[in-house]
Amino acid sequence: MTSTAGKHLSTIVRVVLGLVFLYAGILKIADPVAFAGNIAAYRILPYFGNYLVAATLPWLEAICGLLLVIGWRARTAALITCILNGVFIVALASTILRGLDIDCGCFQQGGDKTSAWSAMGRDIVLIAMALTLLRKDRQRSP
Amino acid sequence: MHQSTIRLLREMAGICLVAVAIGLVWNHQLLYNAWTGNAPSTAPVAASAPPDQSGQAQQAVPVPLPLGLMQVKEFHDRKEAVIVDARDETAFAAGHITGAVSFPLGEADGRLADFAKRYPPTTLLVVYCNGYACHDSHDLANKLLAAGYPTVFVFEGGFPEWQAAGYPVMEGNQ
């Protein structure tokens, strides 16, 4: 019973995490120029770097999200999302340290502003979800 | 254990490569424009050619990045950027973003040298005009990029969006 409940919970966590990344990726794919503008506001990358990341990162998010939703190579996708969220947290922390009060650009480009602190909190929750999946998967492995 | 780690890393690399490849192919035109605009060898050509008359000169100019209302407000409040009004002086006098500098697109070529004396190339610029249907801000931003300002944003919502948000505006030529 406990094992069945745990399996269901793991599936829910996997699908929810996947949908979050799929949603985030699709919104950015739809408007890469606006996403490049949001990346530029972080003032970390050079001019072309903003466009390069805006062109490729959303696809990585969307593919990882899709893999998590369908459950194929889910462990690998969970690990990538974990690393991505770690990178996002570092970038957001740098904006706080530099006194930049910008929109995180996490989902809807040009939508309501999300502060760096809120975005970091959300990223920590997503990392916890990904780690839960990795831990479950490891326990199942011989 | 070792085998599974290698397999995991290989799968991660595979997923990343596929994502990057799709992203590059999907956005190849955008990346090409950004790349050619940023190429240092094309900058002198772009600076000397009239951007409105030559499609090739337009391609050589870096693409100005769009900026949302909230970010413009942040720059404005912190005085981190010079807000540039690309509309004509009559429109500027009727109402503009408080603290904005009037730099009408129609007089840009004549005023560029004076502008460059007042604001060094390191200045962060945000250009606006009359909202999404107005292209003067984009054209002026292209001229400023070609003139050697590396960081030029376009506030596409422009004065109408700023005013509708209830943010500070003023009248007159100051």
From TrEMBL, chain A:
The keyword Transmembrane helix applies. Residues 8-134 form the Methylamine utilisation protein MauE domain. The keyword ATP-binding does not apply. It is found in: Membrane. It comes from Geomobilimonas luticola. It is a multi-pass membrane protein. InterPro entries: Methylamine_util_MauE (IPR009908). The chain crosses the membrane at residues 12-30, 50-70, 77-96, 116-134. Keywords: Membrane, Transmembrane, Transmembrane helix. It comes from the Bacteria. This is DoxX family protein.
From TrEMBL, chain B:
Residues 77-171 form the Rhodanese domain. The keyword Transferase applies. It comes from the Bacteria. SUPFAM superfamilies: Rhodanese/Cell cycle control phosphatase (SSF52821). It holds the Pfam family Rhodanese. SMART domains: RHOD (SM00450). CDD domains: RHOD (cd00158). PROSITE patterns: RHODANESE_2, RHODANESE_3. The keyword Transferase applies. Keywords: Transferase. This is Sulfurtransferase. The lineage of its organism: Bacteria, Pseudomonadati, Thermodesulfobacteriota, Desulfuromonadia, Geobacterales.
